[in-house]
Amino acid sequence: MALKIASRFRRLLQRPGSIDLGPYERLTQLVGEAEESVLALTDEELTEAVGELRTTGGLHEDEQIEFLALARDAGNRAIGERAFDGQVVGALAMLQGRVVEMATGEGKTLAGAIAAAGYAVGGRKVQILAVNDYLARRDAEWMGPVYELLGVSVSHIGQASTPDERRTAYEAEVCYVPVSEVGFDVLRDRLVTDVADRVTAELDVALVDEADSVLIDEARVPLVLAGATRTEELDEDVVQLVRTLRAGVDYEIDGDGRTVALTDKGTDKVEAALEGINLYEDDNLDRLTQINVALHAEVLLRKDVDYLVRDGKVSLINNNRGRIAKLQRWPDGLQAAVEAKEAVPVSDSGEVLDSITVQALIKGYKTLCGMTGTAVVVGESLQEFYEVDVAVVPPNKPNIRIDDPDRLYLTVEQKNVALVEHIAEVHEAGRPILIGTHSVEESEQLSDRLEAAEIPHVVLNAKNDAEEAAIIAEAGVPGTVTVSTQMAGRGTDIRLGGRDESHDKDKAIELGGLYVIGTGLHASRRLDDQLRGRAGRQGDPGGSLFFASLADELVTRYSVSSGLRPHPDDTGRLTDRKSLGVLEHAQRVADGANAELHRTTWSYHRLTGQQRAILLDTREKVLTEDLAATELAEKAKERYDELVEEVGEDTVKDAARRIALHHLDRRWTDHLAYLADLREGIHLRSLAGGIVHLKPIDEFNKSAIASFDTLIADSWTDAAETFKTAEITSEGLDEAASGVPRPTATWTYLINDNPFGTEADRILGRLRNAIKPESVAEAEEILPEEFDEDELPEELRDADDDELPEELREADDEDELPEELRDADDEDPKDSRK
User: Fold this and answer.
1) Looking at the structure, do residues 540 and 675 belong to the same domain, yes or no?
2) Of 683, 665, 516, 504, which is closest to residue 600 (Cα–Cα)?
3) For residue 547, what is the domain's CATH number?
4) Fewer Cβ neighbours under 10 Å: the N or C end of the chain?
5) SS3 of 353, please?
């Protein structure tokens, strides 16, 4: 009951998952009092004083106060930055396992370093999980003098780090490392055949930078370790054939823009072009798959939005960060299809040896804490998935940024015209402007418009991300116009007057400070807030304004309002409350949809994680003990004794270990491939249940359990058969001759979970299209698909409101709509179709 009351109270304050800072503020006062005695110490005495606090059981409250006083002074001595009270509060909260929300420019990096050093002095090993190589290296080097003065060892890891460098770096008390690199190292260590080949240390404390982005946005992204198998080329005739297909005639795109499918007419056209074959016969399923992935690549994946072509390679764009995702690729032949589309060399394909989601990786740490500029919005999700609370630290100086109301237009073109006119007006006064766009393509299109309007500017996107620090650092200089894709995780403060605040800082302040303009709202309010937060740092003046249109992707994909009849002015601008309410509602639906996707993804990966833990326990015993020798001596006693006499017991034990590890890994690889296929088609099995209500996740778990049930036993059987005929000499096991070769090459990458969507996605997309307002459809000439109730799963046709999917409940429950939409004219959704 108490927890429910607390939860409601937090909701009332719109601070879900946040905690009371009172205890931390009281301790911070004591830190200030203790600091007076620290000032008289020499550097050597300060380091010795920290050393006297070292323990293996964590710092108690009195020890934390003394340490923080020493750390605060160390920051001032080492890098000229004395932590504000807010930074001390943030460090205390992180030492208590909280995620801290601190506004941009409030000094999260120093607060995180102090917390990490506190954990290290308390006998813990800390990995500060960054979002990219640049920030990991920069922060480790920047904070290095502070750690040195505190007597704490520090290191950093990047994509180019060698195994030896990684092994050494992980041994440091504090290691700055991109979260993806930790995941990939964990995956590689799971497949070693010799303990000495491991590089990672025990996962102890994770201090996550940009915590909301890593823990929520990227949590469902699987990190994959693959082994080389073959080059997967797409037939040229398939590529050319797909380019002749016509939208709306030969194929249809679902309302979300996530899936595309051949129509009956399109199927006939393709089959005729392929010498009259039946695409749906078993012998032609490979060709059908090629057609589907080629169509997906041609129609749904957009150059300069989803990927770039650079240096003769297809490079995916991380939409969360606006950067090249150097290790990311698409699965299921889609990578090869995009490469064929762009006429670049096809990269090697491979089989998945193992994978892990970012969420599963993070949950492997004993202690979790973190910091970000926007955590409150996802406070409930952080509690649900990680059982951590948010500590909201107030800014050191009051925020005086002025956030203007969003400007809404009927069409994208009207929005863009108004956007450029407004930029020109603000630029004429000389005020520094930062413009946030959603994609490389959009940033370059806006750049063209600004050039036509003779507005000088610089562009920061995935094509020139190497220059980002220099570009961002100068965005606060008067007269500067900076166009950038996603600002989350850029990691560089925008100071008025430039990096050293020497370029007309006073003029920038007089003009109102940095002015942030968004070219459209994001699917999450957090991303809008992250962009806004670039202005108004440390009490500076600033402003923000977002432009949007009813034809923006956010509205067309997630709006479920009906009866809307907008009345724009001569410029296309909409100011009525009902139209503006559509934006808020679309964002809430998008947030809900992403949260549900996270929840669903975690449901499917949770059982796999439990099965992996069982397998890894057995694998660890094989790797570090004599389990393999014991098992194989029992299953093939005559062969075992014979080999011991010929080559010696140590050689036989080593061979047994390698054979057993091969078959455990082989069985696990096959199991993962089975689970991938199972998940792709599980919705069909659930719909086949007839009267019985079958949940896809229940059906998935049932089949996954049955598949794994005998996996380890079957691995021992396979190992015994191999052991009986293996080539084992005094030099050891000949792996290739014995049929147990290791992969000739391995590589790591990230994938987007289920890129083709599901049948449920398609059904919900049609529902949303069916109830979209006519006027919005007319703006972009969108023709919604006809929707037949018979296409719904049977269990949804007569479902009560509380049984409906979240998106449908949002649409059906008037109380959940923004107040300004509740009185919208009610019409039959079918009447609003063209």
Assistant:
1) no
2) 683
3) 3.40.50.300
4) N
5) strand
Same domain, 118 and 148: yes
* DSSP assignments along 468-493, one per residue: HHHHHHTTTSTT-EEEES--TT----
Query: Does the residue 506 lie in any domain?
Result: yes
Specify whether the CB–CB gap between 395 and 539 falls below 8 A. Answer: yes
Asked if pLDDT for residue 436 goes beyond 70, the answer is yes
CA 368 – CA 208 distance, rounded (Å): 8
183 close to 154: Cβ distance less than 8 angstroms: no
Q: Does 143 map to a domain?
A: yes
Q: Does the annotation place 436 within a ligand binding site?
A: no
- Residue range 134-168, pLDDT digits in tens: 889 999 999 999 999 999 999 999 988 999 999 99
**Positive or negative: CA dihedral 187, 193, 197, 203:** positive
- Tell me, yes or no, whether 202 and 53 share the same domain: yes
DSSP 8-state class, residue 84:
P
CATH of the domain at 316: 3.90.1440.10
Separation of CA 272 from chain center: 42
Which tens digit of pLDDT belongs to each residue from 306-318? 788 888 888 877 6
* Of residues 740 and 813, more confidently modeled: 740
Residue 108 is assigned to a ligand binding site: yes
Domain count, the chain: 4
Q: Are residues 73 and 43 in the same domain?
A: yes
**Residue 545 falls inside a structural domain:** yes
Mean pLDDT lowest among 282-286, 435-439, 550-554, 662-666: 282-286
The boundaries of the domain holding residue 310 are 236-347
List pLDDT tens digits, range 182-208.
999 999 999 999 999 999 999 999 999
Q: Which token pair is 286?
A: 């490979």
Q: In percent, how much of the chain has pLDDT > 70? A: 80
* Residue 107 assigned ligand-binding role: yes
582 and 723, same domain (yes or no)? no
Cα–Cα distance list, 59 to 52, 124, 797 (Å): 12, 10, 58
Q: What is the rounded average pLDDT for all residues in the chain?
A: 82
Q: Is residue 604 part of a domain?
A: no
Q: Do 158 and 135 belong to one domain?
A: yes
How many CB atoms within 10 Å of residue 507? 16
Name the 3-class secondary structure at 565.
coil
Residues 267 and 377 in one domain: no
Which among 817, 831, 809, 413 is positioned nearest to 577, based on CA atoms?
817
413's CB contacts (< 8 A; 6+ apart) are none
Interhelix angle 627-635/637-647, rounded to 10 degrees, is 120
Answer whether residue 100 shows pLDDT above 80: yes
Say how far apart CA 425 and CA 449 lie, in whole Å: 14
Report yes or no: 180 and 221 within 8 Å, Cβ to Cβ: no
- Taking the C-alpha atoms of residue 623 and residue 616, their distance in angstroms, rounded to an integer, is 10
Q: Rounded to an integer, what distance in angstroms lies between the CA atom of residue 568 and that of residue 549?
A: 11
Q: Which single residue is written with the structure tokens 């792996």?
A: 735
Is-contact 65 27, C-beta < 8 A? Answer: yes
CA atoms within 13 A on the CB side of 538: 11
87 is in an annotated binding site: yes
Of 103-107, 438-442, 545-549, 679-683, give the lowest mean pLDDT range: 679-683
Q: For the whole model, what pTM was predicted?
A: 0.79
Q: Are 171 and 203 within one domain?
A: yes
